């Protein structure tokens, strides 16, 4: 199976279960020109991060973050940023345990235009 990354400034990392039953998780690291709380530009950004519930709490999530951070360092970035939905407390705690510091909270609004 081939590897496809749609962005030239991004990389995808996966956790393979190793038993032919598929993946246990993935992450995507990308580049952003700015990110809340960061002082450098550009910065690495955790665009996506997921680990199946049955594969959590054994280091897979942290390994996926580390792979993205290593990728960002290899591009010369000095900071990594991320986000999570406001009610995703599991992600908040996982970020904190991995050394990330909360810098902001945002409430997003939408209005349909008719």
Shape: globular
Structural class: alpha+beta
Task: Estimate what percentage of residues fall within beta strands.
Answer: 15-25%
Number of helices: 2
Summarize the structure in words:
By secondary structure, the chain is of the alpha+beta class. It contains 2 helices and 4 strands; from the N terminus they run E-E-E-H-E-H. The mean pLDDT is about 95. About 20% of the residues lie in helices and about 25% in strands. A 4-stranded mixed β-sheet has the order 1-2-3-4, covered by helices on one side.
Write the layout of secondary structure elements.
Elements: E1 11-16, E2 23-32, E3 43-51, H1 60-74, E4 80-81, H2 89-97
Parallel strand pairs: 3-4
Antiparallel strand pairs: 1-2, 2-3
List keywords for this structure.
114 residues; alpha+beta; four-stranded mixed sheet; 2 helices; 4 strands
What would you say about this model in short?
With 114 residues, the chain is α+β, with helices and mostly antiparallel strands. The protein has helices at residues 60-74, 89-97, and strands spanning 11-16, 23-32, 43-51, 80-81.
């Amino acid at each position: 199976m081939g590897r496809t990354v749609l962005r030239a400034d991004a990389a995808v990392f996966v956790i393979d279960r190793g038993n032919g039953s598929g993946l246990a998780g993935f992450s995507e690291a990308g580049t952003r020109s700015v990110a809340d709380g960061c002082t450098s530009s550009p910065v690495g950004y955790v665009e996506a991060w997921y680990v199946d519930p049955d594969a959590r709490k054994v280091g897979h999530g942290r390994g996926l973050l580390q792979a993205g951070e290593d990728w960002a360092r290899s591009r010369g970035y000095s900071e990594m940023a991320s986000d999570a939905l406001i009610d995703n407390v599991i992600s908040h705690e996982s970020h904190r345990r991995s050394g990330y510091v909360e810098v902001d909270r945002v409430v997003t609004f939408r209005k349909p235009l008719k």
